Amino acid sequence: MNAGKHHRSEAARRARIPVRRIAMPEQAWYHATPAGERGGPMTADDLVRLYQAGRIFSTTPVWRTGMAGWTPLASVTASLGVSTPPPLPPPIPAAPLPPPRRRLHWIWIVLLALACAAVPVAAIVAAIAVPARNDYRHRAGVTEVIAASAPLRVAVQQTAAETGACPVTAIQADAALPALPSAALEMPLSTLHAHRHVKYVVTTQGDPATACVVRIGLRGFERSGLDDRALSWTLDPADGAWTCSASVARRHLPADCRD
């Protein structure tokens, strides 16, 4: 009996407690979570706060009642009163890499090294060769005068043998030939008179009087050791041999005129 009364009073008490119902928002919003689940329902303001807090993004799919399907948050921000940040500018294109520098082939490196080594060698060779060439050219000019004087020495010796005295003559390259004491002297003196390296020719007597002397002055070498210098020959009347002497450097003389 008492148990039945207690049960009825408990039921009456529960009937008097009001039931609290949670009101759904007029437009309930949902968003997708990274786990693939659905977050919500929530109001539009709650959705905006999640976006501003960085918990959802403009690419996060959202949906609300009345929409046909899920759509990125960026497509509904205008209706939510939220402005999405402008898209980032495109990345600056990378500057093109410069073309690789072409390296010298090893053959060119070897050639350059040889060329660099050849320059001082060429300078040394030139320093040796040029003076040697000039000496050779000058010696050839002196030898040419000596060869041209040979007929004159023969004519002088012949005249001394015929007359018993050495002929005495003197000619200058820039003057006319004088009268000659012997016709035998005319041809060799004319040849020497016209020679480009002969400045003057003198024939005279030595000691004794039959020791004839032939002296030839030099010119046209354009060298101080040769121009205005002289070649001389002295006749030995005993054996008829000529002895050569000169005021010219030995290197410019042939071997038979260096003693």
UniProtKB/TrEMBL annotation:
<dbReference type="InterPro" id="IPR025640">
    <property type="entry name" value="GYF_2"/>
</dbReference>
<keyword id="KW-1133">Transmembrane helix</keyword>
<keyword id="KW-0812">Transmembrane</keyword>
<dbReference type="GO" id="GO:0009289">
    <property type="term" value="C:pilus"/>
</dbReference>
<keyword id="KW-0472">Membrane</keyword>
<dbReference type="InterPro" id="IPR045584">
    <property type="entry name" value="Pilin-like"/>
</dbReference>
<dbReference type="Pfam" id="PF14237">
    <property type="entry name" value="GYF_2"/>
</dbReference>
<dbReference type="Pfam" id="PF00114">
    <property type="entry name" value="Pilin"/>
</dbReference>
<dbReference type="GO" id="GO:0007155">
    <property type="term" value="P:cell adhesion"/>
</dbReference>
<protein>
    <submittedName>
        <fullName>DUF4339 domain-containing protein</fullName>
    </submittedName>
</protein>
<feature type="transmembrane region" description="Helical">
    <location>
        <begin position="106"/>
        <end position="130"/>
    </location>
</feature>
<dbReference type="InterPro" id="IPR001082">
    <property type="entry name" value="Pilin"/>
</dbReference>
<feature type="domain" description="GYF">
    <location>
        <begin position="29"/>
        <end position="76"/>
    </location>
</feature>
<comment type="similarity">
    <text>Belongs to the N-Me-Phe pilin family.</text>
</comment>
